[in-house]
């Protein structure tokens, strides 16, 4: 028993993670331990696609026509739903303070947190989207456009949503405010996302739409972490 | 002594139309322990949050080694260990995972002292237990374990002894005294009577703010 701790030291890996990897690993681990948060947006996504034909019309021609819009709107709202919790628990248990007091570049840490969020919402939503497409009779021609546009669009949704989450984290009831702040910024992504699928369905080239979605993502990757960092400092300062 | 480590000049802070402190000035030198005193609501936590750089709702100047705090933010954060009201411990992570994250965020935390620190705060055998199954005091001990791992010269501790048992308090007091003897600086608030004698200097917010 006496030499037990010593053995532990020998086998334990005491390598310190970098700020990006450390934050990413931690957020993934946190979600893994609280699986219900993980499944919530996906259930919502699936429910919309299930209920929509029941509520409107099960006619396959009609559904095929609205499918791109329905899938995209559902993905957008599912992302928005999960946004509020991004910084909330960190704020409540004081880890956000520790994060802001870290000498590590906040840009990287914030980017890691958003990446973790996307890997746990946007990426599964994208992977699930073809299933929803099939449920809504989306023709096979549109599938690649659907997946590709979501793959490029959902990270932008996470990045922009995180700005709203950071601004409202200090407020007791931030949920409604996030939607108001963020929805206008989501609209361009939605428009180009659905338009790319329509183009794919009619046999038009989708390259232009994807380029615009990619450009929005590139802009978001550079600008959003700066805005998120500043917003977090303001929220915690209050 | 050369320049003071931390120099506070004419600090003014107002909260909800109530002046917490006005013209608050004091220096903190190497090897000093400064206890911020005051009744509940006198602004102790607010002052510590301002000094740590978390809160910017103040007027006046704060200098870290003669440089204004906002123009050396990174260097200042590198020298700082802050223990806040909330211990900063994730409930679903284990003590070890929490401390690993702290080490990733704060390069001054020496991860090789992990086992030593956990043993010192009495958490040996709890390394792999999620923190939500630990008691409130043990949760705070997870965060306090950072004190045993840190190389940061400035410690700002807000109520570090809350929910800690007598033996733990005595241990932490000894640790704080040792840190000061090695040239470190500690700013803390506590309602405990600290048995550190001359080492400690007290700043009373009631008198300074005129709320007494």
Automatic annotation (TrEMBL), chain A:
Signal peptide: none annotated. It is a multi-pass membrane protein. Keywords: Cell inner membrane, Cell membrane, Cytochrome c-type biogenesis, Membrane, Transmembrane, Transmembrane helix, Transport. It comes from the Bacteria. InterPro entries: Cyt_c_biogenesis_CcmB, Cyt_c_CcmB_bac. GO terms for cellular component: plasma membrane. One of its GO terms (molecular function) is heme transmembrane transporter activity. The chain crosses the membrane at residues 38-56, 62-81, 118-140, 146-169, 176-197, 209-232. Belongs to the CcmB/CycW/HelB family. Required for the export of heme to the periplasm for the biogenesis of c-type cytochromes. This is Heme exporter protein B.
Automatic annotation (TrEMBL), chain B:
The keyword Ribosomal protein does not apply. It comes from the Bacteria. The lineage of its organism: Bacteria, Pseudomonadati, Pseudomonadota, Gammaproteobacteria, Oceanospirillales. Keywords: ATP-binding, Cytochrome c-type biogenesis, Membrane, Nucleotide-binding, Translocase, Transport. InterPro entries: AAA+_ATPase, ABC_transporter-like_ATP-bd, ABC_transptr_haem_export_CcmA, P-loop_NTPase. Coiled coil: none annotated. It comes from Amphritea balenae. GO terms for molecular function: ATP binding; ATP hydrolysis activity; transmembrane transporter activity. CDD domains: ABC_CcmA_heme_exporter (cd03231). One of its GO terms (biological process) is cytochrome complex assembly. SUPFAM superfamilies: P-loop containing nucleoside triphosphate hydrolases. The keyword Transferase does not apply. This is Cytochrome c biogenesis heme-transporting ATPase CcmA. Residues 6-212 form the ABC transporter domain.
């Amino acid at each position: 028993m006496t030499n037990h701790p010593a053995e532990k030291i020998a086998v334990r890996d005491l390598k310190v993670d970098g700020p990006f990897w450390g934050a990413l690993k931690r957020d993934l681990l946190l979600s893994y331990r609280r699986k219900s948060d993980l499944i919530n947006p996906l259930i919502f996504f699936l429910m919309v696609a299930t209920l929509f034909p029941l509520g409107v019309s099960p006619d396959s021609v009609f559904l095929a026509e609205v499918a791109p819009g329905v899938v995209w709107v559902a993905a957008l709202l599912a992302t928005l739903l999960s946004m509020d919790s991004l910084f909330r628990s960190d704020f409540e248990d004081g880890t956000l303070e520790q994060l802001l007091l870290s000498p590590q570049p906040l840009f990287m840490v914030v980017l890691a947190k958003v990446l973790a969020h996307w890997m746990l919402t946007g990426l599964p939503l994208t992977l699930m989207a073809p299933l929803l497409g099939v449920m809504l009779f989306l023709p096979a021609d549109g599938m690649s456009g659907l997946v590709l546009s979501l793959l490029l669009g959902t990270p932008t949704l996470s990045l922009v949503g995180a700005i709203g989450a950071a601004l409202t984290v200090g407020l007791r009831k931030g949920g409604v405010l996030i939607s108001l702040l963020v929805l206008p910024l989501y609209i361009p992504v939605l428009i180009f996302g659905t338009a790319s699928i329509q183009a794919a369905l009619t046999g038009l080239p989708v390259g232009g739409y994807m380029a615009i979605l990619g450009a929005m993502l590139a802009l978001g990757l550079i600008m959003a972490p700066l805005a998120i960092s500043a917003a977090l400092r303001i929220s915690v300062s209050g | 002594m050369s320049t003071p480590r931390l120099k506070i000049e004419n600090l003014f802070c107002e909260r909800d139309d109530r002046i917490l402190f006005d013209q608050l000035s004091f220096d903190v030198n190497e090897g000093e322990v400064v206890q911020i005193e005051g009744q509940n609501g006198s602004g102790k936590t607010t002052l510590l949050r301002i000094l740590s750089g978390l809160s910017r709702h103040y007027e006046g100047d704060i200098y870290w080694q003669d440089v204004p705090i906002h123009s050396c933010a990174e260097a200042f954060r590198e020298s700082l260990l802050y223990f806040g009201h909330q211990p900063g411990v994730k409930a679903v992570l284990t003590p070890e995972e929490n401390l690993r994250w702290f080490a990733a965020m704060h390069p001054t935390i020496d991860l090789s002292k992990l086992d030593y620190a956990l043993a010192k705060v009495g958490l040996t055998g709890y390394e792999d237990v999620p923190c939500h199954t630990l008691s409130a005091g043990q949760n705070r001990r997870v965060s306090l374990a950072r004190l045993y791992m840190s190389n940061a010269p400035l410690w700002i501790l807000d109520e570090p002894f809350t929910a800690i048992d007598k033996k733990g308090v005595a241990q932490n007091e000894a640790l704080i005294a040792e840190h000061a003897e090695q040239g470190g600086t500690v700013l803390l608030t506590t309602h405990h009577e600290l048995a550190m004698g001359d080492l400690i200097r007290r700043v009373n917010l009631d008198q300074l703010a005129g709320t007494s």
